[in-house]
């Protein structure tokens, strides 16, 4: 027995010390590796598309994004079916382990990681011809835009966050556990990425590549970044580029064409989109799972690039949220020319309501049965944006193909007007920009003759952004950057439901508990278990 034990020990020692000359590690020569797969135009393009796909992951545009920011910005409030984690968002009663916020954080960093992979592998690739050389530059530029977009959201929502500048295949513990970077350093990184991206992005694409980042998108996001940083002059310079050649953006003639699936990718009916998250109705794929927006985008098999918003917000379907009464009332204000009561025409494109509110009062206009009266008395004010009740009476599942508008031209015009006003310029330039948005053919709202003082001009601008962008996840970001989120939301909530839920700490979201537990350098830098 002792001899047998000695033999076993000898064998173990030989294996442990590498005494056996012939390696037992067998390599699958047909398997791809990080170094061998991304060596062609097609493979790197796949990596770019996989980066875009992250926008439709949990926490982002397939589902959680609209809930998070419509509820936090008080563009939406919970209806009776809304429960649990989403109800906690609506009530500002959430903690660092809030699932939707943790999903958003994870997906934003997933977008950064995939973009870093694209940049790393595209830079290592040796293109075979001039076409591939141009594609190489474009792929890197697209990845830099997407990375900047992720950091833009992270720095605005959380302040200091880890700044992961590159993909490292075998990182050290120090490279994994990065500390939180200074806000100024994150903004500088965003700016440089967007400047780099502009150089190599095309002005436009053929139809097969709609949805990919254009040079205009990089200009718009850089201008928006300058605005959020309060670099007013730089914002004017950057955003002004989009109002002149070589760009040909214009306001969509019909406001609702921006949120109606047949018109989204048609440049004639919708020349306004600068960057959007592309969707396709689940029924159009014919494969995959219609519940993919609930977390199965890359795990449940089949193709899926649709949104659950129509079904979840829909008054005749899951009916999870109302548009807030506060948002509805904003559409009724003093006529700038007659000083009488005025109901803004954009109300009818934004929500279902009654005649007094200006909301749409009918649905199913294209159904075989003909128009049906909206049941206002029992339904309350409900969202019309991102819905397609003009075509069907109910949806039958979370399968909407309506694209998500990330940046559009009206937003750019209003940001440009704001940058002028913030510098004390309330004259013809910001006046013309605001009036341009109001005079869209399907809106034709009365034009302002004057914007008045700087404070009056900002009040007009703030309301115009609220009306134009209601339900587009912009309100929360605007209120936070203007420094009026707490007072605005609490005063509105006090009137509607008797609560004042917004606390001082809510100007930043909590660093997710999962990040705190995984990264000791972040964990030790969090105050009061929040941020």
General description of the model:
With 531 residues, this protein is mainly α. It contains 23 helices and ten strands. The chain has helices at residues 2-16, 34-37, 41-53, 64-72, 84-90, 99-124, 130-158, 173-176, 183-200, 215-228, 232-240, 282-285, 309-313, 325-330, 347-350, 376-379, 409-422, 428-438, 454-469, 475-482, 485-497, 513-518, 520-523, and strands at residues 76-78, 273-277, 321-323, 332-334, 341-343, 351-352, 362-363, 372-373, 382-383, 404-408. Strand 7 (362-363) and strand 8 form a beta hairpin. Helix 7 (130-158) packs parallel to helix 10 (215-228). The longest helix is centred in the first third of the chain and has 29 residues, at 130-158. The protein is globular and about 80 Å long. Residues 1-22 have low confidence and may be disordered.
Quick summary of this structure?
The protein has 531 residues and is mainly α. It is 46% helix and 6% strand.
State the end-to-end CA separation.
62 Å
Number of helices: 23
How many strands appear in the DSSP assignment?
10
Beta-strand percentage range: 5-15%
Mind describing the biggest β-sheet? Answer: 2 strands, antiparallel
Q: Uncertain regions: pLDDT < 50 for 5+ in a row?
A: 1-22
Q: Mean pLDDT score, rounded? A: 91
As a percent range, the share of helical residues equals 40-55%
Shape: globular
Structural class determined from secondary elements: mainly alpha
Strand order of the largest sheet: 1-3
Instruction: Output the radius of gyration.
Output: 26 Å
Task: List strands and helices in order, with pairings.
Elements: H1 2-16, H2 34-37, H3 41-53, H4 64-72, E1 76-78, H5 84-90, H6 99-124, H7 130-158, H8 173-176, H9 183-200, H10 215-228, H11 232-240, E2 273-277, H12 282-285, H13 309-313, E3 321-323, H14 325-330, E4 332-334, E5 341-343, H15 347-350, E6 351-352, E7 362-363, E8 372-373, H16 376-379, E9 382-383, E10 404-408, H17 409-422, H18 428-438, H19 454-469, H20 475-482, H21 485-497, H22 513-518, H23 520-523
Antiparallel strand pairs: 1-3, 2-10, 4-5, 6-9, 7-8
Helix pairs in contact: 3-6, 3-7, 6-7, 7-9, 7-10, 9-10, 10-11, 10-17, 11-17, 17-18, 17-19
